[in-house]
């Protein structure tokens, strides 16, 4: 296993940031930690990259213990923290040179690994990092995290605040890195990115809700979901919440996702109820569960 986490707990005074977390990441896997702000993702990354000591539990990364072998871990992992981690006043090239030097290597030595990503920012190599766009900064930070050819790469919310095109490109880059035998643990609050991982852990309030492949997680969803639409979204949500048979109701894009407690649910009954509340253009249609639906159900 590339990463083994056993019963890790970490508190900041009264706040329990991680509670009895256990999971394993296989060599070469692209594993996603999916959860909202405050779920504990950054705390787990900091424990695994030896920047923070857990209160309980044990963890190894690339075969090294996070406490006793912390120096080996630092040599063998790349870490791209959530907040921009580069030197704003150094140029693109100077930042990369700096990170290569502290790891006792050179840009040339590992150029092959970063080439695909670096060519995209090379035209700006003399620009200060602080003056780059969000997508460019993210590519530079990834190059810096890769420059010493790590065995395991930790990426904490790498696409937060990045435009949709750059996000898509970033995930394509991760897939290519995976082909080069790098194990990747990536966190994201974006549920659509979960589907791009080999396996994911859904995490909330410091606890793991479920670990599986994205396909299996969606398949385990126990209810039939309906897209419900009407002329007044706000009133629709309120009326659905008042409906005695509702199991769950939450906005989802242009519709409301609705599940019913009855096994023999007939959508026409719901339509009649909603129309009796003076809603018009009522539409009710079956839809498939997504990772977000599963998350909402588990987090209830
Ligand atoms: N240094 C700290 N002192 C006190 N509480 C903290 C500290 N760091 C994090 N926390 C709390 O621990 C919990 C987990 O935070 P963490 O940053 O690990 O979550 P996260 O999933 O990475 O979310 P975010 O994206 O907001 O950073 C939160 O309730 C947070 O407020």
From TrEMBL:
ATP-binding keyword on record: yes
Record's keyword terms, sorted: ATP-binding, Nucleotide-binding
SMART domains assigned: AAA
ABC transporter domain boundaries: 3-230
Organism of provenance: Polaribacter sejongensis
Protein name (Swiss-Prot/TrEMBL): ATPase
CDD domains: ABC_DR_subfamily_A
Pfam families: ABC_tran
């Amino acid at each position: 296993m590339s990463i083994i986490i056993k019963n890790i707990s970490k508190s900041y005074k009264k706040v329990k940031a991680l509670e009895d977390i256990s999971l394993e990441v296989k060599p070469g896997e692209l594993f996603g930690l999916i959860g909202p702000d405050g779920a504990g993702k950054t705390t787990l990354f900091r424990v695994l990259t030896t920047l923070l000591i857990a209160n309980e539990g044990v963890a190894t990364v690339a075969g090294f213990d996070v406490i006793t072998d912390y120096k080996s871990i630092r040599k063998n992992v790349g870490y791209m923290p959530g907040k921009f981690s580069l030197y704003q006043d150094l140029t693109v090239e100077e930042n990369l040179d700096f990170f290569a030097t502290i790891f006792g290597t050179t840009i040339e030595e590992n150029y092959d690994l970063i080439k695909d990503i670096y060519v995209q920012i090379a035209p700006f190599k003399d620009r200060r990092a602080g003056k780059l766009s969000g997508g460019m900064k993210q590519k530079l930070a990834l190059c810096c995290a890769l420059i010493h050819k790590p065995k395991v790469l930790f990426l904490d919310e790498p696409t937060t605040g990045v435009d949709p095109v750059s996000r898509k490109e970033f995930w394509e880059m991760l897939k290519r890195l995976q082909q080069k035998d790098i194990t990747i643990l990536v966190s994201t609050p974006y549920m659509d990115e979960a589907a791009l991982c080999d396996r994911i852990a859904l995490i909330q309030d410091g606890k793991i809700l479920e670990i599986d492949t994205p396909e299996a997680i969606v398949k385990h969803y126990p209810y039939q979901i309906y897209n419900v639409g009407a002329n007044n979204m706000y009133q629709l949500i309120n009326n659905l919440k008042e409906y005695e048979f509702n199991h769950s109701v939450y906005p989802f894009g242009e519709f409301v996702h609705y599940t019913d407690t009855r096994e023999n649910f007939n959508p026409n009954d719901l339509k009649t109820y909603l129309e009796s509340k003076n809603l018009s253009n009522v539409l009710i249609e079956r839809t498939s569960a997504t990772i977000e639906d599963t998350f909402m159900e588990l987090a209830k």
